[in-house]
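Appendix C reproduces, verbatim, an entry submitted by the partner laboratory led by Prof. M.T., so that reviewers can inspect both the input and the predicted structure.
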Amino acid sequence: MIDAKGMAVAPGFINMLSWSTESLIVDPRSLGELKQGVTTQIFGEGWSMGPLNDKMKKAMKDDQGDLKYDIEWTTLSDYLNYLEKRGVSQNVASYVGATTIRMHVLGGPTCGSTPAQLQQMRDLVEAEMRAGGLGIGSSLIYAPAFYAKTEELIELCKVAAKYKGEIHLAYAERGKSVDRSGRGTHSNLARSGRSQPRSITSRPAERTIGRRWTRSSRWSKRRGKAG
């Protein structure tokens, strides 16, 4: 029995948008967040730590800053197992990054994908979902994510749906509420949500006006129609 008299008691907090993917490799204890009550880290907003090919591993190695580490994994599930073997103090899980899948197959900010390339992307998602991926994470406001057509994201979501995966989207309305393809971003969100039966999680939508950011609430109505 623990005497909690005079103290605040709460369950462990979940960091739903964690970017401790590298720091946990170097410091598996994660004391900075652990002492704030965070007991679960959820990764994969757009980019995930797998699946990787040799080119992606080299780029990650070249881009390392103060935190230096060897990339001893290839798939996302390998990475999570790697953290566990290093004695990570918290629970960890991850979405499959749509950007990661795209770069694995296309290698860069290519606008379109061929049917064969799309099948490769589906196969990669399938493998990661079988291994325990939470679903699809896509950051539609960042390159190269916004080069993907809505239909491409829908196809990836369909694969995740087979395993009751969720969709996590970070998106924004740009200018006149349209994305690169000319269609409203909120409409794309709703269309993606209709492709699978579970749920959508998303950042609050924002509209860019010059250098100002203003909140938008219309996204909630569109998201409700996705169910």
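The CA atoms of residues 54 and 97 lie 17 Å apart. Additional entries are available on request from the coordinating office.
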